[in-house]
Amino acid sequence: MTAGTPCAERRARAALTRATEPGDETFGGWLRRFGAVRLLDLLTGDRVDAEAHLTGVGAQRLDGYRARASAAEPERDLASAGAVGARFVCPGDTEWPSQLGDLGAAAPVGLWVRGGPDLRLWALRSVAVVGARACTPYGAHMAATLAGGLAGSGWVVVSGAAFGVDAAAHRGALAASGGTAAVLACGVDTVYPRGHAELIARIAEQGLVVGELAPGDHPTRSRFVLRNRVIAALTRGTVVVEAAHRSGSLSTARWAQRLGRFTMGVPGPVTSGLSAGVHELLRGEGVLVTDAEEVIELVGEIGDLAREKRGPVLPRDLLRPGCARVLEALPARGTDSVAEVAREAGTTPDDALARLVELHSLGFVERHSDRWRPAAPLLDTGGPSRGGA
């Protein structure tokens, strides 16, 4: 059992995960006002007492809460979680990630957690990688590469275990022998999508599987969307890899922005509809990233800087400035006038001749009697040289 929370509080919160849907702010307001034990008593006790205290909803909705709370069997749920190696973590536990409090009344009642690592410690150094389910090979490659780079640098990759980008991100982290956590829109003992049974089992063995819903609960469309707020709140930042305008992964980015987390996007072809949502994000507050180093530079500590990117260093890049100017001044067709080269390079004829001799010894120019011209390999590179062919 996770230390820190009294048994009565843990039992009550476990029961309340059956009574409400994720992200219900009315219910969250009651929980903050009355506490878990008192709220459960109100929901399962006298109706008149419940109506007097639990305001802000109609009678039919209140009856729904009461029916679900009365049917809850927290001891059975806690036992079911234990049977698959899961535990129930709630506020007051040492493992509870305090940043979830940023969600206010929409914060989870508690979290069912499957896997060995400490959720709070992992969340302190985590990044969400999310995106389209029907992603392209480019999207899958970028998600896996980003996740592998992050995991290899000691960051935990958080995603939703869905098809497409989510799966690629989890697999990239696993392949790098790093940490990854899957936040589900169902019970942690429920495999969804069914095609990811092996993947989710691997995540539970090597990382964490997390969910708000009680064991056995099934996913719904609204639960997928609401699950995204937990992904955003748990992590230091969210990276979106491929997303159409109506992609659900963009809701994770919007939650991240709302919570003051870093929001990033990986650009794609402007002709692809799966890049449209990401590009719209980048036109707003999102930051463009192309690799794990750029993500870490944004979400990491001071000094976590991405390496400067540049093209390959060519031999002519290493020339001293004076030689480089003379080489640039030498016409591609060649010349027998050192004075002309000196004038174009802004130096004296004697200095230009000395530079030409040095360039000849280095293989940058050829000399035919009194005529100087750039060496053939230099011309083949298409590098800048005055005069044209």
Topology:
Layout: H1 7-19, H2 25-34, H3 36-44, H4 47-53, H5 59-71, H6 74-83, E1 86-89, E2 111-114, H7 119-123, E3 126-131, H8 137-152, E4 156-159, H9 165-175, E5 180-184, H10 197-206, E6 208-211, H11 221-234, E7 237-241, H12 249-258, E8 262-266, H13 273-283, E9 287-288, H14 292-299, H15 321-329, H16 338-345, H17 349-361, E10 365-368, E11 371-374, H18 376-380
Helix pairs in contact: 1-3, 1-5, 1-6, 2-3, 8-9, 8-14, 9-10, 11-12, 15-16, 15-17, 16-17
What does this structure look like?
The chain is α/β, with parallel strands linked by helices. It folds into three domains: 92 residues; 190 residues, Rossmann fold (3-Layer(aba) Sandwich); 66 residues, Orthogonal Bundle (Arc Repressor Mutant, subunit A), CATH 1.10.10. Helix content is 47%, strand content 12%. The chain contains 18 helices and eleven strands. The strands form two sheets. A nine-stranded mixed beta sheet has the order 1-2-6-5-4-3-7-8-9, with helices on both faces. The protein has a two-stranded antiparallel sheet with strand order 10-11. The longest helix is centred in the middle third of the chain and has 16 residues. The radius of gyration is 31 Å and the shape is elongated. The relative contact order is 0.09. The C terminus is likely disordered.
